[in-house]
Design goal:
- It is a single chain.
- The chain is of the alpha/beta class.
- 27% of the residues lie in helices and 25% in strands.
- The chain has one domain: Vaccinia Virus protein VP39 (Rossmann fold), CATH 3.40.50.150.
- The strands form three sheets. The chain has a seven-stranded mixed β-sheet with strand order 3-2-1-4-5-11-10. A two-stranded antiparallel sheet has the order 6-7.
- Strand 1, helix 3 and strand 2 form a beta-alpha-beta unit.
- Helix 1 runs parallel beside helix 4.
- The two termini are 29 Å apart.
């Protein structure tokens, strides 16, 4: 999974500066602008919803508004320092969730899959802890238009350079004001990402994109078969 130290070192900046920076769209992956996707794909429900890689816990209020009871798991103690004020949390590796088999009705992972080099393992863990019929919602940077290969500095266009098919970790970023140039990111080409969902045993139900003029976010809803 992502290095604990990487996010520990930027936790204060993330909470006090990054989250409070105004943004009109989700083009830079700002997590506060993703409520609509959570509402549309996860929807209203009841019971416990686990956020895998919860960071500072900023999605807890949206989950509660939808009727869910949020809990969070993250590797970074620095991020959890802030998250504890927003929801119950546990410090743990996303590849080894401290949850028993078939316990949860829902789980989400929001803007974190590029922090997790073993994301297929995380998806398998999500399926393990979901009950049959349970829902998993992935919201992440768009693999086709975001990454070290994509220059997003122009307001009306994205320049795609060679590198999309490489599937590698990098700190290359189109901006020095975001997260990726600080902690890096693992890139998953679209087919590899979708195959990871299928290989984990999820039935893919819905998809959504967000960001303008070129999508910066891809969201996927999957269900554990009954």
């Amino acid at each position: 999974m992502a290095s604990t130290a990487s996010y520990d070192e930027i936790a204060d900046w993330y909470e006090s500066e990054f989250l409070n920076r105004p943004r009109a769209v989700t083009g830079d992956g700002h997590p506060l602008s993703l409520d609509v996707l959570l509402s549309d794909l996860l929807g209203e429900g009841s019971g416990t919803c686990l956020e895998i890689g919860c960071g500072t816990g900023i999605h807890a209020d949206r989950l509660r508004a939808l009727g869910w009871t949020p809990i969070g798991v993250d590797l970074s103690g620095g991020m959890l320092h802030y998250a504890r004020e927003r929801l119950p949390v546990a410090q743990a590796d996303a590849g080894h969730l401290p949850v028993r088999d078939g316990f949860l009705p829902a789980a989400i992972a929001v803007m974190v899959h590029t922090d997790m080099p073993r994301y297929p393992e995380v998806l398998r863990e999500a399926v393990r802890v979901l009950r049959p019929g349970g829902v998993f919602v992935h919201i992440g940077v768009h693999p086709c238009f975001c990454g070290g290969f994509a220059a997003r500095g122009h307001r009306e266009a994205v320049v795609i350079r060679p590198g999309y098919l490489d599937g590698r970790w990098t700190k290359a970023s189109w901006t020095d004001k975001g997260v990726r140039d600080k902690v890096g990111a693992t890139h998953w080409p679209l087919p590899e990402l979708l195959h990871a969902f299928l290989d984990a045993g999820l039935t893919l139900d819905r998809f959504a994109e967000s960001g303008a003029p070129t999508p910066a976010v891809l969201a996927i809803k999957g269900t554990k078969p009954r």
